[in-house]
Fold this sequence. Notes:
The structure is a single chain. The protein is built from 13 helices and twelve strands. The chain has helices spanning 13-21, 62-78, 84-90, 101-110, 127-139, 200-204, 233-242, 266-270, 337-341, 351-357, 370-379, 383-390, 399-402, and strands at 7-10, 25-28, 45-48, 117-122, 143-150, 161-168, 180-181, 195-196, 292-297, 306-308, 326-331, 347-348. Helix 2 (62-78) runs antiparallel to helix 3 (84-90). The chain is of the alpha/beta class. Strands 3-4-6-5 form a four-stranded mixed β-sheet, with helices on one face. It has a domain at 7-181 and 382-402: Rossmann fold (3-Layer(aba) Sandwich), CATH 3.40.50. The longest helix is centred in the first third of the chain and has 17 residues, at 62-78.
Amino acid sequence: xxxxxxxxxxxxxxxxxxxxxxxxxxxxxxxxxxxxxxxxxxxxxxxxxxxxxxxxxxxxxxxxxxxxxxxxxxxxxxxxxxxxxxxxxxxxxxxxxxxxxxxxxxxxxxxxxxxxxxxxxxxxxxxxxxxxxxxxxxxxxxxxxxxxxxxxxxxxxxxxxxxxxxxxxxxxxxxxxxxxxxxxxxxxxxxxxxxxxxxxxxxxxxxxxxxxxxxxxxxxxxxxxxxxxxxxxxxxxxxxxxxxxxxxxxxxxxxxxxxxxxxxxxxxxxxxxxxxxxxxxxxxxxxxxxxxxxxxxxxxxxxxxxxxxxxxxxxxxxxxxxxxxxxxxxxxxxxxxxxxxxxxxxxxxxxxxxxxxxxxxxxxxxxxxxxxxxxxxxxxxxxxxxxxxxxxxxxxxxxxxxx
Length: 403
């Protein structure tokens, strides 16, 4: 989106393969073990997005228990003392201390006046840690902003709230201006206005009466073998065929792309790297189908977030199961008892749909089994949000207007 490339440090094998297929330079390594000296004298910016599982509401949140140890690690690393081994032995979750790793790199780079800017992202509970980073970075001459941003305010069809740190040596660190709002705001003397939040239907290209029809998959279940039909999909496919609305769709779940075919030539061969509509059905459905409104349930817990298709999704995250997000049907009005008994079965969201709701291009080359693809999608920062955060530091002040 911004016309620049990064060098990524990534541990997950399949995330590395996906980045390679997308033309991104990646070093597969344990970020806590990789040396810092190769970056000294050649680093413009540092992007840090440590694993969130130790802190997330979706996990056991042992990172909160380990938080004093992480704060200690940040202070020690900022002073040039590496006490990580000792502190790690006391952590309840070994991933907790990875939130201190950015300071190891920042301390090494600081001696040479680097980096010029820093952008960091994590779940909201990590904000106190980002504030600790801010105090240290300000003492080193950075302008710093920390706070919570909602991805939906920047055109992402998902109300994903994240703790953000922005720091710069050369310009004031301020959050990007929101481009969207829950309720559209017209242009006025006080500003350009904001568009309404992007809904899931907008992002997936659904019409007002569409219901999701699952794509027939040729393989890629959690174990790598054939993928079973999602719950209710046989019924949905049969009904769609009977009414003449179903069309076979090409399965892009396991598209094989040579590792060096993307990158600079992406725009020529694949169009702009911006969200593209899914090949979702845009037909008028039988009258019975219009009695139901489809919503996305974010997981199988009793307190799961459920959002209508004309709203942004809740935060997408995926656990040990291949996929915990499902489309569920709710009555669009008063239904007869017979109609209530024939409610459509839940349908699992596809990796393509999940990627689009994260603002990845529809043809993004996710690698691995279905479960591994969903893990990558759930772990990723939405590219559109990342672009808004990075644009000012890359001298792309016009990006917010263009977006």
